[in-house]
């Protein structure tokens, strides 16, 4: 299922939400009806929260079915909302986890500046191999890609070598697209898992076709 949606006129859904096969994390500022539509489209329950008091939780959190990584600014109250989940509050300066991590249940690609000790922590919480990389030469891989267990979408200027590495790490086909009428920062434009995707309302029919093909949403 693919749904087009805005948050009070804002088509950059990926800034405020992030998801896995098992859970949607959404900003407390997200309208209730919008949260319900996203939860239904992806077939998963939702936890609404802030991270470090901020509503841009899509930029500050990343998860797969095995674990959740939050910005190190996350408070104890915020962490308590994830009882029963394997959660890491990242102890690093580059703490916009949603911007710096691209992952599914098979693997993860991360910002090249992350040190080995932190990568080992990520491997423990996400229970996957973690590899440093770029997309179109850009280090904030979580902003410029969207990954599910069926496919990974990335910036249209991603090189053949970068796409090959994404396919090796995430173990799914990689394809290129934009969203929201030509926006290459597709991680900011949408939220998805293998069951569905929700994209900003400015996304064109051609872009929707590429997203459906790339994520095998049939």
What is the domain total for the residues? Answer: 1
Number of strands: 15
Report the span from N to C terminus: 7 Å
Number of helices: 7
- The computed structural class is alpha/beta
**Sheet with the most strands, sense and barrel status:** 3 strands, mixed
**Helix-strand pattern:** EEEHEHEEHEHEEHEEEHEEEH
Mean pLDDT level: 97
Question: What is the CATH C-level name?
Answer: Alpha Beta
Helical content, roughly? 25-40%
Estimated share of beta-strand residues: 15-25%
Q: How does the overall form come out from the CA principal axes?
A: globular
Q: The CATH topology is what?
A: L-arginine/glycine Amidinotransferase, Chain A
Rg from alpha-carbon coordinates: 15 Å
**Low-pLDDT segments, ≥5 res:** none
Give me the CATH superfamily: L-arginine/glycine Amidinotransferase, Chain A
> Strand order across the biggest sheet?
1-15-14
- By CATH, the architecture is named 5-stranded Propeller
Describe the structure.
With 218 residues, the protein is an alpha/beta fold. It has a single domain, classed as 5-stranded Propeller (L-arginine/glycine Amidinotransferase, Chain A). It contains seven helices and 15 strands. The strands form five sheets. The chain has a three-stranded mixed β-sheet, covered by helices on one side.
């Amino acid at each position: 299922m693919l749904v087009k949606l805005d948050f009070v006129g804002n088509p950059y859904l990926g800034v405020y939400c992030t998801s896995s096969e098992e859970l949607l994390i959404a900003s407390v500022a997200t309208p209730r009806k919008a949260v319900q539509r996203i939860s239904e489209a992806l077939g998963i329950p939702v936890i609404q929260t802030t991270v470090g008091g901020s509503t841009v939780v899509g930029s500050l959190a990343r998860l797969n079915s095995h674990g959740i990584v939050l910005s190190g600014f996350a408070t104890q109250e915020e962490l308590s909302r994830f009882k029963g989940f394997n959660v890491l509050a990242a102890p690093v300066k580059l703490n916009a986890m949603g911007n710096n991590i691209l992952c599914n249940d098979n693997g993860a690609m991360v910002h090249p500046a992350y040190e080995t000790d932190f990568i080992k922590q990520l491997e423990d919480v996400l229970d996957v191999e973690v590899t440093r990389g770029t997309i179109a030469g850009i280090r904030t891989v979580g902003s410029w890609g969207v990954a599910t267990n069926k496919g990974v979408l990335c910036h249209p200027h991603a090189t053949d070598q970068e796409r090959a590495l994404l396919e090796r790490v995430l173990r799914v086909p990689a394809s290129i697209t934009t969203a929201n009428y030509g926006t290459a920062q597709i991680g900011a434009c949408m939220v998805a898992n293998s069951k569905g995707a929700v994209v900003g309302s400015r996304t064109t029919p051609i872009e929707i076709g590429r997203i459906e093909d790339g994520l095998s949403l049939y």
